[in-house]
UniProtKB/TrEMBL annotation:
Any one of the GO BP annotations: siroheme biosynthetic process
Source organism superkingdom: Bacteria
The protein's name in its UniProt record: precorrin-2 dehydrogenase
Reactions performed catalytically: precorrin-2 + NAD(+) = sirohydrochlorin + NADH + 2 H(+)
Length: 213
């Protein structure tokens, strides 16, 4: 059995603590920030980019060593210092809470791990090897990035709009399903947005006329 359950957690406004301020902490903070999490870093030193985010008020920096401070306010806790014993003491404190815990050098202690991810607006493609090989996850992510380019951001927004429109305007569930399938054709992905909408409007008109016959 693989015990990892893939979910998409809404992180907006969630309190997160990141212990350590090096490269790994920066990567974890970066992806948490993109989702609107409220992050506190505990570390005597931080990278220049983390310092920039602090100055811009995007994150909160407690300039101190981690020495067993209370972590109970936090929903997500990441330990990413370069000291194994410090990371372990974060774990000991964190496990008293109900938080999601990520100990960067101890996959066995994590109750969540982070996948490698391609984001194209609302489209999110994640790869996990369940900790077996982060470099394989990264390689597959790069491959997926080539296959699913930036055009997917607009395309997925278009599909969302069309979905609402079709649900409102087409009564027959089988016909709706056929339209949804048709809109998955690569022609719609590749077309510029205006042309894509014209193609979809023409398709809807056609279907409606058929429905009236
Ligand atoms: C996906 C990604 C997400 C993110 O971190 O945001 C992520 N690691 C990434 C990068 C990365 N990781 C490592 C390097 C150095 C090169 C190398 O050694 O390969 C690089 C940098 C690079 O590849 O450039 C090494 C490494 N990783 C872990 C350990 C500890 C250990 O295994 O003991 C060590 C050895 C540390 C040591 O040296 O001691 C552990 C974990 N790393 C995971 C996720 C989780 C499992 C994911 C999965 O496989 O499902 C897990 C279990 C926990 C977690 O961190 O959540 C991210 C973006 C990738 C991308 O998209 O490019
Ligand atoms: N999970 C992953 O994806 C992954 C990938 C690579 C490395 N790692 C592991 O992550 C850890 C961090 O790696 P890094 O490259 O960011 O290290 P780094 O040396 O760049 O950064 C370490 C940071 O921890 C801070 N620190 C040290 N002692 C501290 C304390 N007592 N309290 C608070 N902060 C303290 C330092 O000031 C520094 O900011 C290492 O254990 C490494 O093995 C994990």
């Amino acid at each position: 059995m693989n015990p990892h359950y893939p979910i998409h957690v809404k992180m907006e406004g969630m309190l997160c603590a990141v212990i350590g301020g090096g490269e790994v902490a920066q990567r974890k903070v970066g992806s948490l920030l993109e989702c609107g999490a409220k992050i506190t870093i505990i570390s005597p030193e931080i990278t220049p980019l983390l310092a920039e985010w602090t100055e811009q008020g995007k994150i909160n920096w407690k300039r101190e060593l981690y020495q067993g401070q209370d972590l109970s306010p936090y929903f997500f806790i990441v330990a990413a210092t370069n000291h194994r014993h410090v990371n372990y003491s974060v774990y000991e404190q964190a496990k008293r809470t109900k938080a999601f815990i990520n100990i960067a050098d101890r996959p066995d202690l994590c109750n969540y791990i982070v996948p490698s991810t391609v984001k194209r607006g609302r489209l999110v493609i994640s790869v996990s090897t369940s900790g077996a090989s982060p470099s394989l996850a990264s390689k597959l992510r790069r491959r997926l990035e080539r296959e699913f380019g930036q055009e997917y951001e607009g395309y997925v927004d278009f599909l969302a709009q069309m979905r609402l429109k079709v649900l409102q305007e087409i009564k027959d569930a089988t016909v709706r399903k056929q339209i949804f399938q048709e809109l998955l054709d690569d022609r719609y992905v590749e077309a510029p947005s205006l042309q894509r909408e014209q193609m979809a409007d023409a398709l809807l008109q056609q279907v409606k006329q058929r429905e009236q016959l």
